[in-house]
Amino acid sequence: MIRLFKRLLFGTPSVSLEHPVFGRLTLQSGKRGPYWMHDAYSDDELSISIETIGVEPPSEAQVAFFQTVTGNWDSMFSRVSQDVIDKYQSYVRKPFPEHWGTALQPGGIGVPLAGDESKPWDITFVCITDNLGYLFNCWFEEGEFKGVSVDT
Q: What is the reported pTM?
């Protein structure tokens, strides 16, 4: 009874871990199930979500997936460039610069379960050419780029 009272009064304690690649992770619950979250606290840091089962820590396959994606942002941007450029020009109302890195910076990545690219995952680019805070969220399913949405 005391445990129930403490849980009602103080909430369920959060589960967290320190990961050698991802840093501080906190277990969250989402519509597709649990995931680990690393919050970015500076402009040069990525927000990272990592799909999981139960409280399993990130797998080596997920680390490899993360390192592959974040190791070559030019390649990642080329996979989404046309849709992102179209959205950028529509929202920012300026021509897109010659190199994507002068307009956008990587802001986040969603790592799929087991690091399997055929499962849903996403990357986010942050607009750095204005103060409106546009986020270009690119999602992938079955190994293919499916679309981009814009948030603020």
A: 0.89
